[in-house]
Amino acid sequence: MKNLFKLTLLSSALLMVVGCSEDYLEKEPSEFLTQEQVTEAAENNADVLAGTLAGIYSLQFQSESGGTTNHDDFGQKGYDIYGDMLSGDLALSVSSFGWYRADITEFQAPLDFTSTRNYMPWRYYYRIIRSANLVIDALGGADAVPEVEENKYILGQTKAIRAHSYFYLAQYYQNSYDPNQEILPLYLLPEDENGPKVTAREIYDVIEADLNSAITLLDGFGRAAKNEINQDVAKGILAYALAAQGDRWQEVKDLTDDVKGNYPIMTAEEVARADRTDDGVDNPTGGGFNDVSTAGWMWGVDLTTDSGVGLVSWWGQMDYFSYSYAGYGDYKAIDSGLYAQIPEGDVRRNQFLNNPASSNHLQPWGKFYDPARVPRGPSQVITLDLVYMRVAEMYLLNAEAAANLGMDAEARMALSTLLDERVDDTSYLDGLSGQDLIDEIYLQTRIELWGEGKSYLAMKRNKATVVRGDNHLSFVGDPIPYDAEELTFEIPEAEILYNPAISTQND
């Protein structure tokens, strides 16, 4: 991990390249590395490209990477929180500081294109895309196959992270998948800027091409750390992108079949604190979701002192046992209605504080926490890591694909393989088929992956309607369909102001 940060310094200036503001209208500002400089340097020192890629990875957890000083601006996990809240599965149960309340939980941002919360994910993902374009171009372009093995792996990872960014943009900025709707500008070269919106089909074609190429390029890649994308992670991202289109289930099943047996499912002891009591006293073993070395994690990042992560972070918003908003009055909890659907005896009930008399009721005290277990504890995140993808996701996607293909027996088998680690008896699955089975898979996806940033994606795939439980602060009990305007961001004002090819929301 320390080497990663040293390499990042080689090209940290690259990552000042941004989207949707005047900052990138000047093609070669003197304080930034240019396309030509990167290409020339890479010819003499491969570490420049490795360092640039490391810098792109570091943007995933860097504060202010969305172009603001907001305390919800800290990369990928910040937008995972947005999605989980918009889906309704993550409740803001107490709000003392106001983060997320008006703009996200009360839907003001998605309905107001001038809101900075429309701008932040747009700027963040396009910033990654533009930096990735520099690396891809320096290695010969999208069709290149570098002769040097190290460069081949760098190209594969960079294509995958570009595809990942376009996928999340497509998810957050399109109400529902319509291949013919123009949704986003498409930038594939370093010199591309100020482009018009193109159709979702064009965006997804690039996503698929990038990921299929990445899967080929990453064959044989032995990554140094889990923050790097390997072949399995690329297949996982592609499975999500195909599933979002609704008619690619056989491909989703094939991809997840390839991956799901390559990592062990997190055990009951790994997923939750054991023997929780209502007064918050804990058995000192089990759970945590705080260690990237957990075998069931496919993709994540090891946060160290070099990372410089503190209050403005995912842990700073979610964990009661860190110095955090979650400890001092902006409480995040599982939706009470979703929690009520977790049966007695399911180990995942132990992930949450079950004490209705406490203002901390249903906070994830048994899932996400600093291992020291000191309430409102360390101000610097040094023993906590971030998870981006788990193998459990591959089992759930596999079950979802099989069920949508009418392969009920295979769907039940994939689902029961996961649930065998969560409940004592999975025989009830034998009586499920068709839509009932699909609904159960969706429910188990929401429970298993709660707080990990996957609920929004699952809601859109399943065309679900959100109904908030009684521990939300607003819109309790109101049915909100997956394609509602208030669940989807608008192209931000900054893009309309500075991109002459997009002058209104309807361009």
From the structure above, extract its key features.
disordered N terminus, two-stranded antiparallel sheet, single chain, Serine Threonine Protein Phosphatase 5, Tetratricopeptide repeat
Overview of the molecule:
By secondary structure, the protein is mostly helical. The protein has a domain at 2-260 and 488-498: Serine Threonine Protein Phosphatase 5, Tetratricopeptide repeat. 42% of the residues lie in helices and 7% in strands. It has 19 helices and eight strands. The protein has helices at 2-10, 35-44, 47-59, 76-87, 101-105, 116-138, 149-173, 200-217, 231-243, 249-259, 268-271, 314-318, 325-328, 336-340, 391-404, 408-419, 434-448, 455-461, 493-498; strands spanning 90-95, 182-185, 197-199, 297-301, 330-334, 386-390, 465-467, 479-481. The chain has a two-stranded antiparallel ribbon. Helix 4 (76-87) packs across helix 18 (455-461) and helix 9 runs parallel beside helix 15 (391-404). The chain is globular, with a radius of gyration of 22 Å.
What is the radius of gyration?
Answer: 22 Å
Biggest sheet layout: 2 strands, antiparallel
Order of helices and strands: HHHHEHHHEEHHHHEHHEHEHHHHEEH
> In percent, how helical is the residue content?
40-55%
Provide the spatial order of strands within the biggest beta sheet: 1-5
Architecture (CATH level 2) name of the domain at 2-260 and 488-498: Alpha Horseshoe
Total beta strand runs: 8
Poorly predicted segments: 1-32
The CATH first-level class of the domain at 2-260 and 488-498 comes to Mainly Alpha
CATH topology of the domain at 2-260 and 488-498: Serine Threonine Protein Phosphatase 5, Tetratricopeptide repeat
Q: What sort of overall outline do the alpha carbons produce when their principal axes are compared?
A: globular
Give the count of helical stretches.
19
* Strand residues, percent: 5-15%
Query: Could you tell me how far the N terminus lies from the C terminus, measured between alpha carbons in angstroms?
Result: 44 Å
Mean pLDDT: 90
Structural class: mainly alpha
Keywords: Cell outer membrane, Membrane, Signal
Organism: Salegentibacter mishustinae
Domain RagB/SusD: 383-463
Pfam families: SusD-like_3, SusD_RagB
